[in-house]
Write a structure and sequence with these properties.
With 308 residues, this protein is α+β, with helices and mostly antiparallel strands. The protein contains four helices and twelve strands. The strands form two sheets. The chain has a six-stranded antiparallel β-barrel. The chain has a six-stranded antiparallel β-barrel with strand order 7-8-9-12-11-10. The radius of gyration is 57 Å and the shape is rod-shaped.
């Protein structure tokens, strides 16, 4: 019986050993399979990392190529833009030159036409209508020392005359073409320029003359005044020079006869505008008279108006 027990035990041990061997084998095979799978996964991970690295390298290369292409495109566009700008500037400059040449041509044509019209006017001027329009604005200036002429240059009754006409006077009157004798006040004067500004007393609105914008040699003009106290008279002539200088002062030289009493009267053009203020003549010469330019007279008048 003891032998039987031993055999049973031995059999049990063998069965146990076989079970352990079987389990070991199974674990070994499982571990082997797991190791193989892990190795496969690791290899796949390496392949994935390599793929990602290759992809990043490709992306970096493509990005660099794209940036290079963009930079080259920008440079090309910049060069094209500069070229277009240069062409535009060249075209603009050429167009401006064409416009300037056209304007110069038009100006020359206009000047030539104006000269032609002016010459035609000079040969066909009739001052009769002008005289009738101007006379109401011309006055005689009477003082206790001398007499002369003047011209109304403002509707408020401002009169321009020569300073030497009223110099040292204690009484001054003006006489209109209608014969009205009116009192005046001396508003201002410029003795070196030989001009004075008078103001006719009262509230009457007067016919006033404007100043001419243009004066030129050969222009037909008339001088209106009161020579020798004979009353209003008119003499016709032309402008001989627009810039004669005496004692540093500018004068308009005219061929109109100028006599005592004409001083301070207006020299007017065909439009009835003031070209100058008649002021003096050279003794012993006929047709050599002088008038103060309209620009100087207008400046003195503007200064006098500031005193009102």
């Amino acid at each position: 019986m003891a032998r039987t027990v031993t055999i049973v035990i031995s059999t049990s041990l063998l069965l146990l050993l076989a079970s352990q061997v079987t389990l070991f084998y199974l674990f070994y095979e499982f571990d082997k399979d797991t190791t193989a799978r892990f190795s496969t996964m690791l290899a796949n991970d390496q392949l994935l990392e390599q793929g990602i690295e290759d992809l990043n390298t490709h992306i970096a290369s493509t990005t660099q190529q794209l940036e290079t292409a963009i930079l080259n495109t920008r440079q090309d566009l910049g060069e094209q833009l500069i070229s277009v700008q240069q062409e535009l500037e060249t075209s603009t400059a050429a167009f401006a030159q064409d416009i300037a040449a056209l304007e110069q041509s038009q100006a020359q044509t206009k000047a030539s036409l104006q000269d032609s019209i002016r010459n035609l006017q000079l040969s066909n001027q009739d001052f009769s209508g002008t005289i009738q329009d101007v006379l109401p604005s011309v006055v005689s200036v009477l003082t206790d020392e001398s007499q002369g002429s003047g011209v109304i240059v403002d509707r408020e009754g401002l009169v321009l005359t020569n300073y030497h006409v009223i110099e040292d006077a204690t009484m001054i009157r003006v006489v209109t073409v209608e014969g009205d004798v009116l009192g005046v006040d001396v508003l201002g004067f410029a003795d070196k320029r030989d001009l004075a500004v008078l103001h006719i007393r009262g509230d009457r609105r007067w016919d006033a003359l404007d100043f001419a914008d243009d004066t030129f040699v050969g222009q037909n003009v008339i001088a209106i005044g009161n020579p020798g106290g004979l009353g209003f008279s008119v003499t016709e002539g032309i402008i001989s020079s627009t810039n004669r200088i005496f004692d540093g002062l500018h004068f308009v030289q005219i061929s109109n006869p100028i006599n005592p009493g004409n001083s301070g009267g207006p020299l007017v053009n065909i439009e009835g505008d003031i070209v100058g203020i008649n002021t003096l003549k050279i003794e012993g010469f006929e047709g050599v008279g002088f008038a103060i330019p309209a620009t100087d007279a207008e400046n003195i008048l503007a200064q006098a108006k500031e005193l009102i």
